[in-house]
C-alpha cells in the first residue's frame, strides 16, 4: 500500500471524506481551511487520479511548520463502527494504511520553526534544565512548558483529535512519547447537527457580540496551557462577548483549524448565565453550515471535551451534542516509523 500526495483541493479525497462524515469531520474541516503553509502535505493511500475510492484507506493532513501547535490529523475508514471484520480486531488493511502514512511521513523534511515560535523553543530548553530526564517511564507534570518540550526533538509530531484506535496503533508501533502530555487524557468528541442547534440567547444589556481582535489574543493565550500562536488564532473564525462600557472581552470561542470548538471560555464573573452556550451556538450557526455536509445533506459541527470537564460537557449536551468517540492529543515520534506497513 502506497501513500500519495493530494492537491488542495482533491475532488476524490473530498468525496471519500464526505462519504464518511461525521467520523471524518476533523480532516474535512482541516483540508478546507485557508490556513495552509507551503510546508503542508495532504496525504492518502490512494492516488488523486484513482477511478474510485478503495474499501480500506487512510488520509492525513501534516504541516510541521505549525509546531508546537497541532501538526497532524489522521483518519482511516477503519474508525467507522462496523467496518472492521470483528468488534475486537481493528481492520488489518486499515492498519496497513495508517502505517503507510506514518512511514511516508518519516521521509519528509522538517521545516524550520516559525520565528513567532522561537520563544517557545527557549521555554522548552528551560524545561529541559528543570526536567533533564526523558524516555520510557518518564512523565512530565502538565504545565505550559511541558506542552512545548517536544520542540527539542524535531522528529516528534503533535497528533491531534486522534481516534483511540489509531492512538493504539501508534502505541503498538512504539511511536507514542508518553513523557509528554496527552496520552493520559481522554477527550470525548461531541457531534452536533447544525439544524438541531438551539436559537442563540440574547445577551444581557451591558454586553454585546463581536469578533476577537488582535488586542484580545493575549488574554486568550493566558487562559490556557495549550500553546496557540497569535497568527493561528487570528486566522480562525471567532465569536466574542464584550462589556460595552469597557470594551473588554469576557467570553469567547474559536472554530479551530479542524473545525472543532476551540478555547471556549467565560470569565468567572460571568459564568452561570448561559453565555458559554450562547457563544458556542452562535459560532456554529454562523460558520459551520456548508463546511462538513454529509451525503444526506446534514451539516455537522464538533467539539472535543476532556473527560470529567463537567461544565464543558454540560454546554455541549445543552446544544444537542452527543459524545460519539474517544480521542487524544498525543506526541508521536515519526522517526521510529519507516517500515511499519511491511510488518506481518
Give a short summary of the structure.
The protein is an alpha+beta fold. The protein folds into 2 domains: 4-114 and 148-189 and 328-342; 192-325, Gcn5-related N-acetyltransferase (GNAT) (Aminopeptidase, 3-Layer(aba) Sandwich). It has 9 helices and 12 strands.
Cross-sheet strand order for the largest sheet: 1-2-3-4
Total number of helices: 9
Largest sheet, if any? 4 strands, antiparallel
Mean pLDDT: 95
Task: Give a description of the structure.
The strands form 3 sheets. Strands 1-2-3-4 form a 4-stranded antiparallel β-sheet. Strands 5-12-6-11 form a 4-stranded antiparallel β-sheet. The longest helix is centred in the first third of the chain and has 14 residues. It is globular, with a radius of gyration of 20 Å. The two termini are 13 Å apart. 24% of the residues lie in helices and 22% in strands. Strand 9 and strand 10 form a beta hairpin. It is α+β, with helices and mostly antiparallel strands and 344 residues long. The protein folds into 2 domains: 168 residues; 134 residues, 3-Layer(aba) Sandwich (Aminopeptidase).
